[in-house]
Amino acid sequence: xxxxxxxxxxxxxxxxFLGRMKKQLWCVCLAFALLWVFGDAQNASCQTVxxxxxxxxxxxxxxxxxxxxxxxxNKFVEKVGSLDFAVGQECFQLKLNASxxxxxxxxxxxxxxxxxxxxxxxxxxxxxxxxxxxxxFLNRFDPTCEGSEGTMRSTVEYRTVENExxxxxxxxxxxxxxxxxxxxxxxxxxxxxxxxxxxDRIDQRNLPRDxxxxxxxxxxxxxxxxxxxxxxPTHSEFLATDSTTSGxxxxxxxxxxxxxxxxxxxxxxxxxxxxxxxRTLGVAQGASIIAVKVLRCDNRGEKTALxxxxxxxxxxxxxARKGAALVVMPVLSEFSExxxxxxxxxxxxxxxxxxxxxxxxxxxxxxxxxxxxSPGSLAGVISVSASNTLERRAVFSKYGSCTDIYAPGVGILxxxxxxxxxxxxxxxxxxxxxxxxxxxxxxxxxNPRMNATNIRPAILSMSTKGVLDLDxxxxxxxxxxxxxxxxxxxxxxxxxxxxxxxxxxxxxxxRNCSVDFNAELGSTLRRWLIxxxxxxxxxxxxxxxxxxxxxxxxxxxxxxxxxxxxxxxVGVVDKLSSVTFEKISDTMxxxxxxxxxxxxxDVVVEVVTALPWVVDARLLQFWAAPVLPGTTSTTSVGSxxxxxxxxxxxxxxxxxxxxxxxxxxxxxxxxxxxxxxxxEQLLLEESGQSDSGFPxxxxxxQAEGGL
Length: 707
Fold this sequence. Notes:
By secondary structure, the chain is of the alpha/beta class. The protein has 14 helices and 29 strands. The strands form eight sheets. The protein has a seven-stranded parallel beta sheet with strand order 13-14-12-15-17-19-20, sandwiched between helices. Helix 4 packs parallel to helix 7 (429-446) and helix 5 (303-319) runs parallel beside helix 6. The termini are far apart.
């Protein structure tokens, strides 16, 4: 049989033999193909990582998983936007508690032997992603990873929404890189964002900090051009700050980096932009950000790109933007005549304010002189150095005669590019310059007619003087940024060469808005101001309205008190404005006023609505007494002599006038006021026995009259 069988096999012929072999080979190939597909499907499934929070308390889950993509042939994502990805990918399915809003952080910061890229998706991945951009979060570089020299490590951060049970993370290499890495997963219950200590510091003159920011929304209508690494416009800090508008206040201007979009791949631009205009972390929460990208992902750029960007900014301001604008340049170069000239000719001379970082230094042989950096060394630019929580110069901050002002720059919390709710704590004069840029935006919003010429002296003169413990010599200015709200109160134009200083209270009273009560209130406030030896020219209640409170146990409202907004005006010549302003500021913080109001008028001071603010003859408004071109904050010896001589002349003239009046006045009329003090005479005026008092106020809400 065997022979017969063999003989039969031989008898079929050579061609029939080959045909049979082809069929068997096809069967073998098909079997291998099925095994390969099945095996790849097994390998290509996403590994589940359980990150389910209990929802009780502030629980947190952290896990580390080791990956090695050297021999990995998986491909979960082939393309995201214009980016192509090769094989060698790992996928993780993150299982979450759908009832808890949580912050999820995935990172390769701990260990990575290759340049990693993390892709976070809301849906299971497919090779060619067809999902909307809002459903994909990608990061290929987190410069805050410690010990990442030699490799680009990455982080993605995401805040979940209700009923979100799964997320997906794909780990891949940048430009086909492969290797081993530790992927760290962290999830915790989302918490409200806390402000940085810097924002807490700049709204008060002296320590201790009060752990809050008094700055309400400001900067509306102002465009801030951030010349940096780009900005993440979808970050929550750039969302509109009111219910009348939607979308982001950060927009992509233009990139001057070759073959690069406007996305921020280092986080630096996003960080500084949020300090300027972030809705929680920023100084000017209503300002708009325009991203101008000049830095690559290694945080470096070309000077030619910077020069081109400056030209584009001016063109964009003139052609595309409405309202006031300023430029902040956290980027800097070594001293450059060409760069300084470009900034001066293109921006400063076209009335565009510019704020720049003074610069950082770290090496012992590196210069600490802020005059050796550009564009901060340019006279018209506001150059900013960094201070720390101890009121000292930051150890890394450049300083010198080219520095204009200090602002907080150590350990500053702000937004980051790794997620729409991501934050980081970063040091730098870039952060300090961002605080100043926010203050400029607020000032421009209130005074759109201000420009580079008068913005700079205003910001510097309103700063807090002498509070920093500097080790930098007398050439370094001891000025710390100071910024406050300017209330939306009615103001009037003072005479040329004068300022009006305004201040106000919000009072709560169980009494009503009658004429008699307003007169009584006015008498009490005026007496108190005179006791404080604080001059004022007039006062008015510009708002008096009933306050309604819920009736206990019902849905009805009960009217049981009245709210009054009281405004005072002081007229003062510019040379005395700073002294008068500081006196008013100190008086406003006195608890004596609260006690006096309660005792004498049945009025409780509920809120000090407005610390003093200043209006000049151009109707420009400031949160402190400024010194602008053409004015002085101190009186020179010559001025003092002139003032003394003028005062003596006026005094002699007054004596002569009084003598003439005395001679012509009847004796009986003189006796009526003999022996009365100034205060007694004031009381006569208040009681209506004199016409020299302030006019009384109408009884209706929003009426403008005197007390």
